[in-house]
Amino acid sequence: MSIKTKNIPISLPVTGEEEWQAVKEPLFNGWLTSGPMVNAFEKEFAQIHGVSHAIAVTSATTALHLSLIALNIKPGDEVIVPAFTWISTANVVEYCGAKVIFCDIDINTFNIDIDKLASLINPNTKAIIAVHLFGLCADIDAIKNIAPTIPIIEDAACAAGATYKDRYAGSLGNLGCFSFHPRKSITTGEGGMITTNDANIAERISMLRNHGASISEEQRHHGPKPFILPDFNILGFNYRMTDLQGAVGLVQIKKLKKFIAERKRWADYYINCLSNIDWIETPHITNDYGHGWQSFVTLIDEKKSPGSRNVIMENLQAKGISTRPGTHAVHMLNYYKDKYNLKDNDFEVARQANDYSMAIPLHNRMGKEDFEYVINAIKNL
Q1: 294: domain CATH number?
Q2: Smallest Cα–Cα separation from 285: which of 150, 112, 136?
Q3: Which pLDDT does position 232 carry in this prediction?
Q4: Other C-beta atoms lying within 10 Å of the C-beta of residue 277
Q5: In whole angstroms, what is the distance from residue 151 CA to residue 174 CA?
Q6: 291 in the same domain as 250
Q7: Residues 6+ apart with CB under 8 A from 72
Q8: Which residues are bridge partners to 99 per DSSP?
Q9: How many Å separate Cα 114 from the centre of its chain?
Q10: pLDDT tens, residue by residue, 59-99
Q11: Going by C-beta distance under 8 Å and a sequence separation of 6 or more, which residues neighbour residue 164?
């Protein structure tokens, strides 16, 4: 049995003394729920992404859920979702009682296939969730050309700091939804953000995340009558981010551009060093896109490779290198297969991505020695 000489995780967050010092303030002042730290984080996030409003929530999943509710998605409505994405992109549609309409993907980008989108649109189509998978923005202008009147929600869970035609993810559609899970470029442990330029939607989401309260807890406590409870005019949820998370996020967001620049440098290094291996295909990037590099996802050609995708992943794991499938084809998961009577080959490109994609380690705690170790291990398979 081979002995691991390295242990390179698929991802690791970069946190340290600055984040620790930031967390002390809410711990010491006693304001732990959503408050001034969250507000400051929201303002910084909005400024960096070029939007008027940013509303912090508990996760990208709850961000997507609230976005659909803010658009009044209800039973009988249809929402178009890429077939290859994390399951929550589809789950949030189910939460609203609406119908998931899967669209196949473009294998070169892992994003929604624009050519297959138009045929799915009908009078029941009330929203399109465009996923910026792995940090590469979807072609939002092309989607708008096909569906100019249909609201677009950007699932930007992987795409903080990513750009499309010099515009930031989260500013491209009607709403943007971000994740701060530890596998993302910046983290608050768990957490999410909704971005929009629509003041009415922003106000509605701010209430929805706080049980439907007409004013926030901070506004009430700092107002002239903190003893008076707010009114509740809409049915809401408890989807608030804590000030502990906001304090971490405020430190992390200021490092985002640096983190992405580092990731881009090493992604370019991967692409250059792996380019002469005929069985592994590296990501495709064009000039209109600024990739956020949340993950570095390759495709394995099993007709040429030294083993199946899963065997390759197993062999790399034995060498201490963590890998993962890019994500999953949601239509192949049992809940969706059973509910919608779907077959694996109904979305053939998504199935291929499901079976042959492989993410290799790319994060800001890796050094040149780590990248060279991964590259050499792949070359020596």
Answers
A1: 3.90.1150.10
A2: 136
A3: 83
A4: 17
A5: 6
A6: no
A7: 126
A8: 78
A9: 20
A10: 999 999 999 999 999 999 999 999 999 999 999 999 999 99
A11: 137, 138, 139, 140, 172, 288, 289, 290
Instruction: Give mean pLDDT, residues 334-338.
Output: 98
Distance from CA of residue 37 to its chain's centroid?
22
Q: Are residues 221 and 311 in the same domain?
A: no
N residues, the chain: 381
Instruction: Using the Cα atoms of residue 96, residue 98, residue 104 and residue 105 in order, give the sign of their dihedral.
Output: negative
Q: Do 247 and 165 reside in the same domain of the chain?
A: yes
Segment 54-70, tens digit of pLDDT: 999 999 999 999 999 99
Task: Count Cα atoms within 13 angstroms, Cβ side, for 187.
Answer: 16
Q: How many domains does the chain divide into?
A: 2
Q: Find the domain containing 61 and state its range.
A: 17-256
331 and 321 share a domain?
A: yes
Which of 233, 256, 279 is the C-terminal boundary of a domain?
256
> Contact at 8 Å (CB) between 171 and 195?
yes
Q: Are 266 and 44 in contact (CB under 8 A)?
A: no
Rounded to two decimals, the pTM is 0.95
Is 6 part of any domain? no
Residues 232, 212: Cα–Cα separation, whole Å: 5
Q: How far is CA 371 from the centre of its chain?
A: 24
Domain end point (choices 232, 256, 280):
256
- Residue 223 reports pLDDT greater than 80: no
